[in-house]
Amino acid sequence: MIENCMSFLLLPASPSLLAFSVAPLAHLRLLDIAVIAIYFAMVLWIGFYLKGRSNTGEEFFMAGREMTAWIAGLSFVSANLGSLELMGWAGSAYQYGILATHWYWIGAIPAMLFLGLVMMPFYYVSKTHSVPGYLFLRYGEHARVLAALSFALEMILMSGVNMFAMAVVMKVVLGWSFTFSILVSACAVTLYVALGGLRSAIFNEVLQFVLIWGGALLVPVLGLVQAGGMDGLKKQIIANMHTDSYFHMWRDMGSFSANPMGVHWTGIVFGLGFEISFGYWTTDFLVVQRVLAAHNLRAARMAPIIGSFFKMAVPFIVILPGLLGLVLLQNSDGSRMQLIPQDTWKVCVPMSSECAPLLKDTSLSPAVQQDVLNGKVTPQSELHSYNEVLPLMMVRYLGPGLLGLGITALIAGFMSGMAGNVSAFSTVWTYDLYKPLINKKATDSHYVMVGRMSIVIGVLVSIGAGYLVQRAHGIMDYVQALFSIFIAPLLATIMLGMFWKRATRIAGFLGLLLGITFSVSLFMWVHVNPENLKYVALSDAAKTMAENVFRALWACLFTGLVIFVVSMFTKPRPAAELEGLVYGVTPLPKEEPVPFYKNEWTWAVLVMVIFAALNILFW
Amino acid sequence: MHGSGIQIWFFIGVLLVIYGAMILGYGVFEWVTASYPAGVQLTNLHTPVWWGGILEALGLLYVVKFRPGRA
Question: Which domains does chain A have, with CATH numbers?
Fold first, then answer.
């Protein structure tokens, strides 16, 4: 009897569920479908449950400012941990090796600590609703509107990236079409965020964080068992790739050509470690909004520090599966599966005339390339892109139920990323664009209604952006381009505003405007003629990742220069007006003394010690 | 979260209890009947049994500790 019941659960998923099926990688069983369906039911339950507690603007947009440090901290990390994080960086690890971990360690940890220890008091004391709101207080209306517009655009595009990543998962594993996948997942996110606002987004982000770990942790654990531990993995990668660069984070950073990523240590330290990282983690409202929802200043300072512990651990479920995929993934005949770049995959599946030249640059053997070009179906000629490495690893190790949980982890990653995008977009649109520019004197309930509507509209626009991403060079390269275009000038503007009282209103606005213009120009310059990359990244051997980090660096320096020069020729604001906004003229609130184990500085020091040890260990 | 109402940790506990029961149940069935899914590696480790058990235990802990109305 039990066996019959269980066999029923193992039946292939209903054909109606896979109405748009295109040769899926794995057949989900009913047990898997049940796991996924229960997840959707849970997030919607949370959304409906919280609807009654999201009636005022403060509740809907700021979650009532009553989150504990743990909830704010996990939400802070989870909002960043979209499916593009999981899949994109697993793909990058397959492509670049452990170098991809830089984006999790030096590219996150110092900035997260800086946000908690140094910047949070200013954001929190000013009681602003958003980062553009802080710019309004510091530099005036023009700077706010410019930052809000660029942020809104970035959120829409980021949301599109998340949708694209999700659609890839659905395509690879479930066989759903791009359009069908986007519509199903976008509807769920729209519903629960529009119902419960930021509180619902934060609740679901914490839930999703747990699911991501519960669903994705088994892949590296089982992969390491099969590879013979880290030593076995290293030996096999060296045997297959004929280099040990895949296991060194810093050793081969002395020149652009010595590492698979084609980036120099100066770009990683200054471009990524300072520019992109500080820009994202300290000024991107998507993540800062989660911390602003904390119930007091100490919780707001602790939240990024708690988040930094988990951020340091994420490479275990993201980078390691990418490395394991290099040696463990097999074709159906037992030969080693070799993945190809997303661009190549796109023009070769289905076959187009552009396939042949790109295929030559892959690691596929000439015989397999010929089979692909001739349309001959063999186990080796079935092509998969780098971005598919994580789902492929899941299919390899996860049976019924567990596969559903793994897919749910990816869906959860998508939802947390997208919910973060749309909830931040909604707040910025309502408070920084609609309220000051369109309707200044409406009631609080009117703004809540506008917030709910902006979520729906934002999702619709980002669906269009999802299709745009299909034309970009890989998932993460595209996102990095966005970071450096918008985030780098914003970082310089906020840093100078927060730590230099001489910075003037007009200087802030002009710096931001010209900085964004400069950043877009650099991007277009290289986009139109890729030869120009050598000027931006200062080397002939530089690759796309190097361009992103160096473009961010130049844009930040340029913005800072503009603000400095213009400030020196314009009249500064009186110091009294800057109280609560600028370091040196703001009396920071006294916090109650707590035991050392509850003090944020204790935990920050511990994070830094672990951070340093990890970098030395994988030098 | 402060204030009254259901805490997020309770929602998480409920979900883990359900998932744990489903995965553990399937794992036991798989082990007893020796009907392992084709193509999946390392089935000899009986991953659904111990992973499902861990999820179930964690879920129960959260449900009990953060149940609504608990002082």
Answer: 56-337+387-476 (1.20.1730.10), 343-383 (no CATH)
